[in-house]
Amino acid sequence: MKVLVATSNVGKLKEIERILRPFGIEVSRPPEVLKVEESGRTFLENALIKARAYFERFGLPSLADDSGLEVEALGGYPGVYSSRFYSIDFGGVEELKVSVDEANIRKLLRLLEGEKNRKARFVAWVVLYTGGGGVFGHGECKGKIAEEPRGERGFGYDPVFIPDGYSSTMAELPPEEKDRISHRGKALRNLIDTLSSLRSIF
Ligand code: IMP
Q1: DSSP string spanning 11-73?
Q2: Best of 155, 170, 186, 188 for a ligand 1 pocket test (most atoms within 8 Å of beta carbon)
Q3: Region 45-49 average pLDDT
Q4: What is the domain range of residue 81?
Q5: To test ligand 1's pocket by mutation, which of 33, 69, 70 has the most ligand atoms within 8 angstroms of CB?
Q6: Which of these, 1, 16, 79, 162, is most buried using a 10 Å CB contact count?
Q7: Mind listing the pLDDT tens digit for each residue in 77-119?
Q8: Which of 41, 197, 68, 51 shows the shortest CA–CA distance to 131?
């Protein structure tokens, strides 16, 4: 099976390729990155919007991931705003003097200064859209927000996310370990399980 990955996020792309390879799913990168307005209020809506946009443009089965970080003390924020949290007027905006990932992390740590409740979770919804409809998968990874960034691996909020049961941040874990416990790994395996059950029914 061959699928087009509907994303411009290189961190996500690498992880999706790595997670799907053992299942014999060949992943291709889009010939062109589309500007898709993520106007949904939920991860699932946004994943569907992205997968459908790529399918309509390129005519190939398209896989999209919409994911983010939900922080309990912030009432679930940044959530669907995770990728551009620094610029969202929630407790002030952060100037973009560093990379987007760093600016997002700075804002998060600033908002959590002195906060004892550091519980958070990563959430991912993935959608495979084939024209006739979509199949989705969902995964979560619970943990807490570190006091300061640690580690060089991964992307996004990985340097400040400590998964439950670990003392390392996600950015300090080997990639295969992240894939085993991550929201994205779980969501993609959930999608594959659904595809397998559909195949056995039809
Ligand atoms: P999306 O492209 O709107 O789905 O953006 C997702 C954003 O959530 C990313 O840009 C990251 O900031 C954050 N995020 C999602 N998954 C991860 C992850 O596995 N590690 C760290 N940050 C993540």
Answers
A1: HHHHHHHHHHGGGT-EEE--SS--------SSHHHHHHHHHHHHHHHH-S-EEEEEEEEEEGG
A2: 155
A3: 95
A4: 2-201
A5: 69
A6: 16
A7: 999 999 999 999 999 999 899 999 999 999 999 999 999 999 9
A8: 51
For the stretch 133-147, pLDDT in tens is 899 999 999 999 999
**Can 158 be counted among the known catalytic residues?**
no
CA of 202 relative to ligand 1 center, distance in Å? 34
| Block residue for tokens 């969501």 | 187
Residue type, 182: S
Cα first-last separation, the chain: 17
Joined together, the tokens standing for residue 6 give: 């509907």
Handedness of CA 116, 150, 181, 90 (dihedral sign): positive
What is the rounded CA–CA span in Å between residue 176 and residue 19?
9
CATH at residue 95: 3.90.950.10
Label residue 200 exposed, middle or buried (CB < 10 Å: 0-12, 13-18, 19+).
Answer: exposed
Amino acid in position 187:
A
Distance 201 CA to ligand 1 centre (A): 34
Amino acid 111 reads L
